[in-house]
Automatic annotation (TrEMBL):
A GO molecular function held by the record: protein kinase activator activity
Organism: Paenimyroides baculatum
Catalytic activity: ATP + protein L-histidine = ADP + protein N-phospho-L-histidine
Database matches in SUPFAM superfamilies: ATPase domain of HSP90 chaperone/DNA topoisomerase II/histidine kinase, HAMP domain-like, Homodimeric domain of signal transducing histidine kinase, PYP-like sensor domain (PAS domain)
Protein name: histidine kinase
Length: 578
């Protein structure tokens, strides 16, 4: 039965019973009222008239007024004949009274009338008794029916009280629980209301919804699994090693290439903590170094040399953080990392071939260029023969080009040395004055050509430095040569040497074009030249300077302002530091 029908019938029945109870109450109260009224009007009045007539009868012989009192009450009695036999008794009184009126002293008549009145009173007394028992019966009936209907009302109200709240609340509670399950993505949850009421229909709709959600989630799961498989196939077919780990550093996946280069088996890799694997595996240790200790991460340390594919192979490491923003949230959350190794062996091999080629070519060039330079010096000598003005100019320009060629070949040779990793340092205690002297000699002509004065300032009692003399001199020549090249004619370039924290600092300050801030880091990169630079050059000098100084444990930097000039400086450890 429907809840609505149940409610309507339960409450309706209760309502009907209450109306019935009230109607019956009114009915029985009315019946009792009618019964008592009946006694009052029909019998009580007759008794009253009888009593008055008896009293008047006693006085008739002596009092003339008593006659009229008797007559008045008799008339009233005549109007109030209600019982069987009362008509006859009243008629007897009338007859005997009429006779008494003619002969008031007749005592026989008086006693007859008394008997008649007594008969009338008896009749009414009996009627009162009878009517009283009728009223009793009415009252008993009222009590019975009111009790029956009252009990029925109580029973119905009790049944409703016991059943109705549960009938409504229990399904709602069950439904609430099921909705919570669905909210927790437990789509196999169903509700089981057997009744064919509103809750039954609600259960049916709920179950249909849950079924559809289950179907949808399964189809979504299927799509996700397919997508996952596709990505797995893609990762497995990649030629570069890829390793995925979760936020707790547990290995989620590793492709064939990753297994190959690490020499690990799937069962010893997937699902394991990567730190545990790293304990016995050098490569994995190297790979996760930055993840475990991000604070110790060094720049340009992404290249790895690994023995793979039967040869020394080079890989570039990249660690990508996987961040997601969970549905309904604002903050992104780290859910893992992907470690990718890019095989750069081919590029390394090509780079090595290029370096070797540059090294060989520049080495081969150096000897003929040097002999050309010597020949030019001979030609300049007046003893060999005099030259006319044009020939002298030609000779000067050939000398300039030869110097430039020599500079380029020297830079290329140094670059080859740096790039091949074959740089050899001859560290010894070096007198800084020697370095300065060689530098000044090498840059003298260049400075004279632009009429640039080199102002030297060397701090007193400078210690010797612990350096490769040739390479340090090469660096200082390069810096001074740049300062001259990028300065205006007739200016001054300052070369200073100072002591700084047990190191010796070399400073070359010019008042030339200066370098904009955004390029100040870049000028130490290979082949980089500030855009718009007019002077000829390779962009290699400063890069080699940096390599040479850092290889000796020193550091190099620039402070510059466009339009004001630049100060290049480098520090080299002094012998006092040993
Ligand atoms: P090169 O001078 O052969 O181009 P370098 O590596 O010596 O190569 O210098 C790189 C770039 O730095 C130069 O091209 C130039 O633009 C800038 N540079 C170097 N030294 C100075 C300087 N003293 N003043 C202004 N710019 C400079």
């Amino acid at each position: 039965m429907k809840i609505k029908t149940k409610l309507i019938s339960g409450v309706g029945l209760l309502f009907a019973l209450i109306i019935l109870l009230s109607t019956m109450g009114i009915f029985y109260v009315n019946a009792l009222k009618r019964d008592t009224n009946n006694i009052l009007v029909a019998n009580y009045n007759t008794l009253e008239y009888s009593r008055n007539m008896l009293l008047a009868l006693e006085k008739i012989a002596t009092d003339r007024d008593a006659l009229s009192v008797f007559e008045k009450n008799l008339d009233s009695q005549k109007q109030n004949v209600t019982e069987n036999g009362e008509q006859q008794a009243t008629a007897d009184i009338v007859d005997h009274f009429n006779n008494l009126k003619l002969n008031p002293a007749d005592s026989l008549l008086t006693s007859r009338i008394r008997e008649d009145i007594a008969e009338l009173m008896r009749l009414n007394m009996e009627a009162i008794e009878r009517k009283s028992s009728i009223a009793d019966a009415t009252a008993d009936n009222a009590v019975l029916w009111i009790s029956v209907i009252g009990t029925a009302c109580f029973l119905i109200a009790f049944v409703l009280l016991v059943n109705l709240p549960g009938n409504i609340a229990n399904p709602i509670r069950e439904l609430t629980e099921s909705i919570k399950q669905i909210a927790n993505q437990n789509y196999c949850e169903r509700v089981h209301f057997q009744d064919h009421n509103e809750f039954g229909e609600l259960a049916k709709s709920f179950n249909t919804m849950a079924e559809k959600l289950e179907e949808y989630s399964e189809s979504k799961l299927d799509k996700i699994i397919k997508g996952k498989k596709r990505i797995e196939a893609l990762i497995n077919n990649m030629h570069d090693p890829v390793i995925g780990i979760d936020e707790d550093k547990k290995v989620l996946f590793a492709n064939e290439e990753a297994l190959k280069i690490s020499g690990l088996k799937t069962e010893n890799f997937i699902g394991k903590q990567i730190q545990d694997i790293a304990v016995n595996n050098d490569l994995i240790r190297d790979l996760i170094k930055d993840l475990i200790h991000p604070d110790l991460k060094k720049e340009n340390e992404n290249s790895l040399k690994i023995f793979a594919n039967g040869k020394e192979s080079y890989f570039e490491k990249e660690i990508i953080d996987i961040n997601i923003i969970p549905t309904g949230e604002q903050q992104s959350q780290l859910i893992g990392h992907v470690i990718m190794l890019r095989n750069i062996t081919l590029f390394k091999e090509l780079d090595l071939a290029k370096t070797n080629f540059i090294g060989t070519v520049s080495h081969e060039f150096k000897t003929p260029i040097s002999s050309m330079k010597m020949s030019l010096q001979l030609l300049e000598n007046e003893n060999v023969g005099s030259l006319n003005k044009e020939q002298k100019q030609l000779l000067e320009s050939i000398t300039e080009d030869t110097d430039r060629l020599l500079k380029i070949t020297s830079e290329l040779l140094n670059l080859a040395q740096v790039e091949s990793g074959n740089m050899q340092l001859n560290i010894s205690a070096v007198n800084t004055a020697d370095i300065v002297r060689h530098t000044l000699k090498a840059t003298k002509t260049q400075a004279e050509q632009k009429n640039i004065k080199i102002a030297i300032s060397i701090e007193d009692h400078l210690p010797e430095i612990q350096a490769d003399s040739q390479k340090t001199t090469w660096v200082l020549i390069n810096l001074l040569s740049n300062a001259i090249r990028y300065s205006y004619d007739n200016s001054v370039v300052h070369l200073s040497l100072i002591k700084e924290n047990n190191n010796v600092k070399f400073l070359v300050k010019d008042s030339g074009t200066g370098i904009s801030e955004k390029y100040q880091n870049k000028i130490f990169e290979r082949y980089f030249r500030v855009p718009g630079t007019q002077k000829e050059g390779t962009g290699l000098g400063l890069a080699i300077c940096k390599e040479f100084i850092e290889a000796q444990g020193g550091s190099i930097e620039v402070v510059s302002e466009p339009g004001t000039g630049s100060t290049f400086s480098f520090t080299i450890t002094s012998t006092e530091n040993i």
